[in-house]
Design a protein that fits this description.
mainly alpha
């Protein structure tokens, strides 16, 4: 019977009711041991069954935290009949993780996405209640998967209730999930639980903890005799009560209890093998209320009882229990046997270490990276040559999303003797981790240094490291280091395969462009892109496909390599490689933002930023925030732009990413210029230019010169504008690419006299046709039309201003559309103000849903692509239909095409 807890019951009942109304709910029940979490979960279970809901249950067991996906399998077992209703790649990932089929290592989020969709499929027939007790003891891989699903539940008829101890590290820490913090019972409920005898004394001593109240009830008479203000000698009494009761039992019963406590399954068959006669020996413990024997298992009355029995035994007794269990377990339980062997061992032991290493490898293959980390790490402590095991533990920890632990394990590995290959692998992994999370100057140094050691082993491997170092140097804004590593990559690639040639060509080309040698750099990038388009190199590895994004972004040409984007995104999404997705998304978004794909760019930036936060990728976060601010500036989204630019600068400065800081400054300058505030814009543009000079960056595409020229002219600083334009003209010609040359031609048009300005603007427009950048072309038309109007050529001015206004309106560049409309009206032509795009009313996730479904994808395909459930896609789609005023998929496609 549940006493008191009216508020808590109401919250649980509300969560279940929401699920029955097809609104997902998540609730974490947190509190100390014995406070009543399990009792509340039993209440939720009873209520759910009474209402016809399906119930999925699991309980974390401390010793099972080392068993890959043990908790997830227990939870999802009744739902496995729905496996054929989830996308095939996710089904394969989940079946491999749960050992239902041969496994292959996957991104750690793949199983989470599959778990979400399996829960959603299971809930298609009836609402589902997911109840997890003692979640703080779930294995790490299960917690990752469950948390991934919990964060994405929106419109499925699913209620998740998770119970955790508030004094134990838990996967819900920092997850910002709705939490119900349990306190003790009130006095009335306490009296009903234990009776009125000494209830005040008991209540004061236990703070209303229900389990403590029950355990101390026999002491009530003695406690009543003590003065109320005398401290009661009962600290830890709940545990000590269990110990006292165990100590009164026969010796063989105590021994059987210890083996049961050491067991992570409680299966009586295994206990009988480890302790012959266990069933009979445990009967006195059952009579004492410490355990229950049922359905071939022994269950402790409370987790504290198990902990008390185990903790009261000596270390030698515990080792003997684990040794007996290891001998008793069958071959199918090789992982459990390995852990029991390890727990039975004190010093180095090759057999135990080897068994744990194999357990770690099996966990790794099932994408249970957190479990694999623990297995490899423990195996290392039992080995006389632990370095390789520590490296494998660090690799698994990185894939498990534990970068600090990964680096600590690599540090530990380096304290031991390393052979050449292993030493390189350790440092390469350290460089890759640091490149994702920063600081980037450290990553650059690590990757460039280890590449030289790798060159003696495998030239192609060294080229990849140098290419990675080149990209990190770009992020750091270090042109000299980019050139050094890029040139070295080319040298080594001459002795390697085509894969190395792609890496070297892209890296060296980027370095040349960044250093101001744009023509040679573009040639190198173009050759690498051609190799990439003609082969399968890189594109089938989700963690390397981001390189497919580099070429088009650096070339800024209308055709070169642009088909690589879609292929790369499709691969990463289909493989559920979320770890690779943030970096790829922000690169793709940057490219789309320089075309007419602004809605898609905004959606990709939003998704990339959210995933970068979730996966702890600081570099991608800074990149995405700065790019988002830059796009929002052009759309005139004042508050969003300033907030994202400020956060981007803070994130970039924290890890030394100077290039994306440039983009944040560009965003602020563009915002002020678009709002007609040149005096404010010039500050940001000049700071942008100063940062370029400080970092010795010569890439003309990163220069604010065209913006400065326009701003200086608006402020009446014609001499300053001319000086900036002259320097920019030289660098643009040196680069020789159409995007840079078009912008340079526009600045010449702004400064030219009345006799020659039209020729310069026309040259700029011809060059714009070779690039995909619609916004830059519209800005040139706007400047051209404004100059024509001032020269009295109103008819020609209207032609250019109409075209610029149409482009700005189509893009959603509202401040620039307003400026173009004002200029057009000054020619004597009234321009109708365009209605705000209804796409602007969509949230980033709604916009992503609209774009995917408008392409012709099904609901399930969109769900798989966005790592959401089909019900959540339908929920967002209903909002999209309402906001766009459409009622069918064909109408949606037409609306998106019209407004896009």
């Amino acid at each position: 019977m549940l006493l008191g807890r009216d508020r808590e019951r109401q919250e649980l009942d509300a969560a279940l009711a929401a699920a029955r109304l097809s609104r997902s709910s998540v609730l974490v029940v947190a509190g100390e041991a014995g406070i009543g979490k399990t009792t509340l979960l039993e209440h939720a279970n009873h209520q759910a069954l009474e209402c016809g809901m399906r119930v999925l249950r699991a309980r974390g067991i401390e010793s099972e935290a080392r068993v890959p996906f043990a908790g997830l399998l227990e939870l999802l077992r009744p739902a496995l009949t729905a496996l054929d209703r989830i996308p095939a790649p996710q089904r394969a990932a989940l079946e491999g993780a749960l050992a239902l089929r041969p496994a292959s290592a996957q991104d750690r989020f793949a199983v989470g996405a599959a778990s979400l969709n399996l829960l959603a499929a299971h809930a298609e027939d009836a609402p589902v209640a997911v109840l997890v007790d003692d979640a703080h003891w779930l294995d790490g891989s299960s917690t990752d998967a469950l948390l991934f699903a919990m964060r994405r539940l929106v419109a499925d008829p699913i209620a998740v209730v998770v119970a955790v101890r508030d004094d134990e590290p838990s996967f819900v820490d920092g997850a910002q999930l709705p939490t119900l913090l349990l306190q003790g019972l009130d006095r009335e409920a306490a009296a009903a639980l234990v009776g009125d005898a000494a209830v005040d004394r008991l209540y004061a001593a236990t703070a209303g903890n229900p389990l403590a109240l029950l355990e101390l009830a026999p002491e009530a008479a003695r406690l009543a005799e003590l003065p109320i203000d005398t401290p009661a000698p009962i600290q830890g009494s709940v545990v000590r009560g269990f110990v006292r009761r165990a100590e009164a039992l026969p010796e063989r019963t105590r021994s059987a209890l210890l083996v049961a406590a050491a067991s992570d399954t409680g299966e009586l068959v295994s206990l009988e093998r480890a302790h012959p006669g266990a069933v009979d020996d445990l009967l006195p413990a059952e009579a004492e209320g410490l355990v229950a024997l049922r359905e071939g298992r022994v269950d402790f009355r409370h987790a504290l009882a198990r902990s008390a029995v185990y903790g009261a035994a000596s270390a030698a007794e515990r080792r003997d229990a684990h040794r007996a269990l290891a001998r008793a377990l069958p071959d199918r339980d090789a992982d459990r046997r390995a852990w029991h062997l390890a727990l039975a061992t004190v010093g180095p032991d090759d057999a135990a270490s080897s068994a744990l290493e194999q357990a770690g490898a099996r966990a790794y293959e099932r994408s249970a990276y957190a479990v694999a980390t623990g297995a490899f790490e423990r195996a290392a402590t039992l080995s006389l040559t632990p370095a390789g095991l520590l490296y494998r533990a660090g690799d698994a920890a990185w894939l498990a999303g534990q970068p600090d632990r990964a680096l600590a394990l690599l540090d530990e590995a380096e304290r031991h003797e390393l052979d050449g290959d292993l030493a390189v692998r350790v440092e390469h992994l350290r460089g890759q981790i640091t490149a994702r999370r920063g600081p980037v100057h450290e990553a650059r140094s690590i990757l460039a240094g280890v590449a030289e050691r790798a060159a003696e082993l495998d030239a192609g491997w060294a080229v990849q490291m140098l290419a990675e170092a080149t990209v990190v140097s770009f992020y750091a804004g270090d042109a000299r280091e980019m050139l050094r590593t890029g040139r070295r990559a080319v040298e080594l690639a001459a002795h390697a395969d085509r894969r190395a040639a792609i890496f070297a060509g892209l890296a060296h080309g980027m370095a040349l462009v960044f250093a101001g040698e744009g023509e040679d750099g573009a040639r190198s990038i173009r050759q690498a892109v051609a190799l990439l388009e003609a082969s399968d190199e890189l594109r089938d590895d989700p963690h390397l496909v981001v390189w497919a994004a580099m070429g088009p972004l650096w070339l800024r040409e209308a055709e070169a390599g642009r088909g690589l984007w879609e292929r790369a995104l499709e691969l990463v999404r289909s493989r559920t490689a979320l770890g690779a997705l943030p970096e790829l998304l922000v690169h793709v978004a940057r490219d789309w933002a320089t075309t007419d794909e602004w809605p898609a760019a905004g959606a990709a930036y939003g998704e990339g930023v959210a995933l970068a936060r979730e996966t702890g990728q600081g570099v991608a976060l800074g990149f995405g925030l700065a790019g988002l601010a830059w796009l929002e500036a052009r759309q005139g989204r004042d508050a969003d732009c300033r907030a994202h630019a400020a956060e981007a600068r803070q994130a970039c400065q924290l890890i030394g990413v100077r290039v994306h800081e440039l983009w944040a400054l560009a965003a602020l300058g563009d915002l002020e210029l678009g709002l007609g505030k040149p005096d404010e814009a010039v500050r940001h543009y000049e700071e942008w230019g100063a940062l370029l000079r400080e970092r010795e960056i010569e890439d003309t595409d990163l220069s604010p010169a065209p913006e400065l020229v326009e701003t200086y002219l608006a402020l009446g600083r014609a001499d300053d504008a001319a000086a900036v334009a002259e320097r920019h003209e030289e660098s643009a010609r040196a680069k020789g690419q159409p995007w840079a040359l078009a912008r340079a031609a526009r600045t010449r048009g702004l400064l030219a006299d009345d006799a020659s300005f039209a020729e310069e603007f026309e040259a700029a427009l011809e060059l714009h046709e070779q690039t995909p950048d619609v916004f830059e072309a519209a800005r040139t038309r706007f400047s051209y039309g404004a100059r024509l109007r001032r020269a009295g050529r109103r008819v020609r001015a209207r032609e250019q201003l109409r075209a610029s206004l149409e482009a700005f309106d189509a893009l959603g560049a509202l401040p620039w559309a307003d400026r173009a409309r004002t200029e057009l009206e000054a020619t004597g032509e009234t321009a109708r103000k365009r209605d705000a795009s209804t796409l602007d009313q969509l949230t980033p996730q709604e916009l992503q849903v609209a774009l995917l479904l408008a392409e012709g994808r099904t609901t399930r395909e969109a769900a798989a692509s966005m790592f959401l459930s089909p019900k959540t896609i339908e929920y967002h789609l209903r909002n999209v239909y309402r906001k766009l005023g459409v009622r069918s998929r064909p109408e949606l496609a037409t609306a998106v095409a019209r407004l896009h």
